[in-house]
Amino acid sequence: MYIRSFLQDRQMTITLSGEIDHHEAKQAMNTISEKIDANMPRRCVLDFRDVSFMDSSGIAIVILSVRRMRELGGTLTLTNVQSQPMKVFSAAGIEQIAEIKGGIKR
Predict the structure, then answer these.
(1) Which of 6, 66, 67, 105 has the fewest Cβ atoms nearer than 10 Å?
(2) For residue 6, how far is the Cα from the chain centroid?
(3) Nearest of 55, 51, 52, 44 to residue 92 by alpha carbon
(4) Using alpha carbons only, how large is the chain's radius of gyration in Å?
């Protein structure tokens, strides 16, 4: 998994690439938490455009990110979620705690 980010006007966009499984999710959660803590954004966007596979471990990434952003008084949005990860998010009801925009059908 590869993670890159950029910050503009207190919005941080974090782009995830590759597959998310239990092992990768732990590292991703640490990296995302570090980026949020270092930049203190008002809005965080997790971009899933390059995530081709995700198991239920990806849910933990979103929950951790939502909690941290709420602690900061900010919001979290998921964007460009491909169909397979979207099925995982939908089964977990993630849309009830985070906004999902621009899903990709592949």
Answers:
(1) 105
(2) 14
(3) 55
(4) 12
